[in-house]
Amino acid sequence: SQQGEEDPQALSIQEGENATMNCSYKTSINNLQWYRQNSGRGLVHLILIRSNEREKHSGRLRVTLDTSKKSSSLLITASRAADTASYFCATDGRGSTLGRLYFGRGTQLTVWP
Amino acid sequence: DSGVTQTPKHLITATGQRVTLRCSPRSGDLSVYWYQQSLDQGLQFLIQYYNGEERAKGNILERFSAQQFPDLHSELNLSSLELGDSALYFCASSVARSGALHEQYFGPGTRLTVT
Description:
The complex is a heterodimer.
Chain A: E1 5-7, E2 10-14, E3 19-24, E4 31-37, E5 43-50, E6 55-58, E7 61-66, E8 71-76, E9 85-91, E10 102-103, E11 107-112
Parallel strand pairs in A: 2-11
Antiparallel strand pairs in A: 1-3, 3-8, 4-5, 4-9, 6-7, 7-8, 9-10, 9-11
Chain B: E1 5-7, E2 10-13, E3 19-24, E4 31-38, E5 42-50, E6 53-57, E7 64-68, E8 74-78, E9 87-94, E10 105-106, E11 110-114
Parallel strand pairs in B: 2-11
Antiparallel strand pairs in B: 1-3, 3-8, 4-5, 4-9, 5-6, 7-8, 9-10, 9-11
């Protein structure tokens, strides 16, 4: 399977702390994306990092990509209770059928006030 | 609000029945994707349409079919429903022919319960 796998499966922290989630994948990619899903709702795109990029920032989000290790991390700084959600990484799988995304199982983040 | 709409929000039906899920993409988006999310399988890509034509196929069962109409809305048809088809079905849209080069915008989903 080309699916990304997030780690940890669940993470519980206090407001104000940083949250780090990791993603590993199996094949080479064009880009990697992170999405967020509130319980039972649709996914919301957070950030896209291309295979030739190593780090990207968006507000309180920082994403890194290490293509040699086939891994990525998502850091949420100064977390808030509203950040409570599931976070998924998605890859495209270079050379595979274009258009499809491969999602991992997600990390369930709980931020306590 | 992503701009992608899906109807209905919830659907409860019996085994053996057939249902149609509808999706309207964001204005200007030509690609529509369908995904199934269940507890045991996670989020699985089903099928993609681009400007009315099938572009990519994933783990879509033969009992399932989809189409994209000239106005770019899409329908996912699920027939001979089984208990295991109970899941959240998401539609997403993007600008590009290859959605993997651009972010995808997800609708709120249709929760299907097969009893």
